[in-house]
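Pilot study result, target chain (128 residues):
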Amino acid sequence: MKKYINLYVISILFIYAGVAHFTNPQFYIKIIPSFIPFKQFLVDLSGVLEIIGGLLILFNQTRKTGVYLLVGLLLLFFVVHFDMLFTFQVSENMLLNKSLLLMRIIIQFILIYWVISLLKLFSNKDNI
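Predicted structure:
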């Protein structure tokens, strides 16, 4: 039962995050490093891929692909997180500081571990 809770929470988290790329794209566009072009395209693409990854992990036949997709995205997102940590200027309307940005990087490692753990939790070929 616990493994299904993990599975559904991760799936919902990534589907929700993916949808947020379309409901609030300006938030994501603002945090993409200045040296990266095609910001709107990348926000849309990452949103679609997060939704797809969140769906793929739900099924035994596609779970491994979904895990690899989500871990790949999480690794790519380090570019944004480290750029923000080292170059981001805190503005009046954003409640961010260096400690929160560092915490975000730590949480990213935890998310990667959590997503990878799905492979072990479902290694006995359980089907949903």
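One observation from the pilot: Residues 2-121 form one domain. A full batch analysis is planned for the follow-on phase.
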